[in-house]
Design brief:
There is one protein chain. This protein is an alpha+beta fold. The strands form 3 sheets. Strands 1, 2, 3, 4, 5, 13 and 14 form a 7-stranded antiparallel sheet that branches. Strands 11-10-9-8-12 form a 5-stranded antiparallel sheet. A hairpin with a 5-residue loop joins strand 3 and strand 4. About 40% of the residues are buried.
Length: about 290
């Protein structure tokens, strides 16, 4: 599949902001055998006094910007063309749940793709007893990691209501779990926390979702903004698998990866600080078009 992707993130400040420093992660990755960034640009308005384009520890493309001058409006505009390859069906090599600890111990690497980074607590995902208790209801030692992940994914889709007004970007996984409502960020955090509580490495994937449904199929939720889904490590043979609990599907050619992280804090589209006061208005629009 070939896609043209655009995203615009705009801020309007009641009082001009200055001394602003932001980290921007909106450009899709190139992943061998999965997707290829053919061309892409990230434009910042107004032009920042300092800009550095780099790659972070997890391999995500980051644009770091600094504004010295006061400004009452700012924008991030990204355009990209991405080729996403259709993945061959897996061979069912996911290890059993009772073998995941020994599989993990056999991995010596601590590189960006190592499952060791995704099994403990992270900035937005501390130990959450209520989610751990929920996860235990899906656990049997003879089940595969894939089976457990698939069951949790399906239950979140069935039990939780997609409601963009129920939560915001700062809502914790525990709060969203109690509400039984939220958006893709919340569902991804809940599923990730549940899997980690069982000792299964899991992480957060940030990206885009195709906005035009295939013929005869319903439009997928979360297609008007950046999307999120879950990455699960199922042992050395199976490697990493990806599940979308918002839509109860495995991640496929409609999912375009921007970044991998432990939780939202590692892959937030924009994160940073500025000097200002009063209110600000934020508008985000995303367009994913098959070519």
């Amino acid at each position: 599949m070939l896609y043209d992707i655009k995203i615009k993130i705009a801020y309007d400040y009641d009082v001009p902001a200055s001394g602003a420093r932001h980290m921007v992660r909106v450009l899709p990755m190139s992943i061998p055998g999965r997707q290829r960034l053919i061309a892409g640009t990230v434009a910042i308005v107004p032009a920042p006094e300092e800009r550095v384009d780099m790659v972070d520890f997890f391999g995500n493309t980051v644009t770091s910007v600094y504004f010295r001058s006061a400004h009452s409006h700012s924008e991030v505009n990204m355009q990209a063309r991405v080729q996403v390859d259709v993945q061959a069906p897996g061979l069912g090599l996911s290890c059993r749940a009772d073998a995941i600890a020994s599989e993990l111990q056999a991995v010596a690497s601590i590189g960006p793709d190592s499952p060791h980074h995704f099994v403990g607590e992270s900035p937005k995902l501390r130990d959450i007893p209520v989610i751990a208790a929920y996860a235990r209801s899906f656990y049997r030692p003879d089940l595969s990691v894939h089976e457990i992940a698939r069951s949790i994914c399906a239950d979140i889709y069935k039990t939780f209501k997609y409601d963009p007004n129920a939560t915001d970007v700062d809502t914790s996984a525990a709060e969203a779990f109690e509400l039984k409502a939220g958006v893709c960020q919340d569902f991804t955090h809940i599923m990730t926390s549940a899997l980690r509580s069982l000792g299964i490495p899991a992480g957060y994937v940030s990206g885009y979702l195709r906005t035009i449904p295939p013929p005869g199929k319903e439009r997928l939720e979360g297609a008007d903004a950046m999307h999120a889904w879950v990455r699960v490590w199922a042992g050395r043979d199976a490697g990493w698998l990806e599940f979308d609990p918002t839509n109860n599907i495995p991640a496929g050619p409609d999912h375009i990866v921007v970044g991998y992280g432990r939780d939202y804090s590692d892959v937030a589209p924009i994160i940073g600080v500025l000097r200002s006061y009063g209110r600000h208005n934020n508008v985000q629009s995303v367009d994913v078009v098959p070519v």
